[in-house]
Design brief:
90 residues; mainly alpha; 0% strand
Length: 90
Amino acid sequence: MECSEAYREGEAYYRRHGYNYKNPYPAATREHNDFERGWTQGLKKNPEIGEKLEKKEGVGSQGYQAEQQAKQTKESLERRKREYLRAKGK
């Protein structure tokens, strides 16, 4: 199986940033999912990287950008709603 560019980016992002997860792709897209899979595989293959960066930079699991994820999801849903209403002629 060939890995997508987003998957490779996710894996590389984990190696550079450890637990400080921030997905650059819009939620509910293939790229978002691939990036997340790559990041997760990076974590599974090298958990010590996140631990080292956590100690060095003080970054822990709280570094996860949940608010950004929620914002992206909300924007995506609002965009889809506008498109739906436009298609319905409202």
